[in-house]
Amino acid sequence: MTLARTFAYARVSTIGQTVENQIEEIKTAGFAIEPHRILSETVSGSVPAGQRPAFMRLLDRLERGDVLVVTKLDRLGRDAIDVSSTVQRLAEAGVRVHCLALGGLDLTSAAGAMTMHVLNAVAQFERDLLIERTQAGLARARSQGKSFGRPASLTERQKQSARADLATGGTVSAVARKYGTSRQTIMRLRETEKETERPALG
């Protein structure tokens, strides 16, 4: 019977930080890990696990029956959803994942799965709150007369002058250059003019 291999993954966000404290914490928790099975890197926590070079190398090395130890959940991903996806991927590969910040809980166990569900629910709740606040803020701004999106490239007076230039034979390119705007803007202006001139049916 092959003994389970234990790996550790440590991450810091900036070059001035060190992973030594994380590695020491893992050893103190009772995990004996050979140096060549400790993978670490300096990468922002905002980067998804799937885009972290050292973590991807780790995934390539892990085999069924192995154990992965991290000090905190954010070592495994950018947010709760990313962490959950990573843990699920490891669980499907037969790798157990222990997180010291959760009392050494195996995230691939039944208790670990329940913990991940709670974390995902909290993350979804926070996202929903953010969306609601954003929508409420936009509605309040609109009620105060504020506009959103790209500002109009031409004023109403310029639009009238541009239409007049087009009506007297000016080309789209020439009119666009004259008013410092794009050909698409002038073409839309011309199409709008045609729509207003088109007689109504019936």
Q: What's the structural blueprint in terms of helices and strands?
A:
Layout (H helix, E strand, L loop, with lengths): L5 E7 L7 H9 L9 E5 L10 H9 L5 E4 L9 H13 L3 E4 L5 E2 L3 H34 L12 H12 L4 H8 L3 H15 L5
Helix pairs in contact: 5-6, 5-7, 6-7
Report on this structure.
This protein has 2 domains: 6-119, 3-Layer(aba) Sandwich (Rossmann fold), CATH 3.40.50; 156-196. Helices cover 50% and strands 11% of the residues. It contains 7 helices and 5 strands, in the order βαβαβαββαααα. The chain has helices at 20-28, 53-61, 80-92, 110-143, 156-167, 172-179, 183-197, and strands at residues 6-12, 38-42, 67-70, 96-99, 105-106. A 5-stranded mixed β-sheet has the order 2-1-3-4-5, sandwiched between helices. Strand 1, helix 1 and strand 2 (38-42) form a beta-alpha-beta unit. Helix 6 crosses helix 7. The longest helix has 34 residues, at 110-143. It is elongated, with a radius of gyration of 29 Å.
The number of helical segments is 7
Report the principal-axis shape: elongated
Mean pLDDT: 86
CATH topology of the largest domain: Rossmann fold
Structural class: alpha/beta
SSE pattern, N- to C-terminal: EHEHEHEEHHHH
Strand fraction equals 5-15%
Strand order of the largest sheet: 2-1-3-4-5
Brief digest:
By secondary structure, the protein is of the alpha/beta class. The protein has helices at residues 20-28, 53-61, 80-92, 110-143, 156-167, 172-179, 183-197; strands spanning 6-12, 38-42, 67-70, 96-99, 105-106. Helix content is 50%, strand content 11%.
